[in-house]
Amino acid sequence: MNKDLEHLRLLSIFHYVVGGIIAFFACFPLIHLTMGLFFLFAPLPENPQKPGDAAVLKVMGAFFVIIPAIIILIGWTLAILTIIAGRKLSKHQSYTYCLIVAGIVCVFMPFGTVLGVFTIIVLLRDSVKTIFGIQTPVINSPTNGG
């Protein structure tokens, strides 16, 4: 039981760390987002070489805004979910939430994969389930009279 509490405490800390790393890496597309905003709002040349050049810049700018914005939003959402899971692990709450986030965070390779797999392994222990207040079913076997 003491070992399980220590594992949950360490997993909680690592969830905070990996959540911060995910948030940091999710900020990289801000460079592309800035470029896209520049393409959208920069003044156009007065004498474009081709009539369609302005439209191409606007469409390219829209792509450079929309796609990085989606990537940033997904990354920050994953970071927040990971940090919340770390908090829930430290308080021994929301077993199912922690298990689901552990599976989702496996997508963030390599740190999230390692963290997610170890979190799943620890959370699947019967002793950890009792810490979270989950009743484990008793399986009748020939050794216990069933």
What does it look like?
It is a single chain. The chain is mainly α and 146 residues long. Helix content is 73%, strand content 0%. The protein contains 6 helices and no strands. Helix 4 (95-105) runs antiparallel to helix 5 (111-123). The longest helix is centred in the middle third of the chain and has 39 residues, at 53-91. The protein is rod-shaped. The mean pLDDT is 89.
Highlighted features:
mainly alpha; rod-shaped; 6 helices; 146 residues; 73% helix
Q: Low-confidence runs (pLDDT<50, min 5 residues)?
A: none
| Count of DSSP-assigned helices | 6
Total beta strands: 0
Structural class: mainly alpha
Query: Residue-averaged pLDDT, rounded?
Result: 89
User: Main β-sheet: number of strands, strand sense, barrel status?
Assistant: none
Strand content: under 5%
Radius of gyration: 24 Å
**Roughly how many Å apart are the termini?**
27 Å
One letter per element, helices H and strands E, the order comes to HHHHHH
Using the alpha-carbon principal axes, give the shape: rod-shaped
Helix content: over 70%
What's the quick description here?
With 146 residues, the chain is mostly helical.
SSE order and pairing:
Blueprint: H1 2-26, H2 30-41, H3 53-91, H4 95-105, H5 111-123, H6 126-131
Helix pairs in contact: 1-3, 1-5, 2-3, 3-4, 4-5
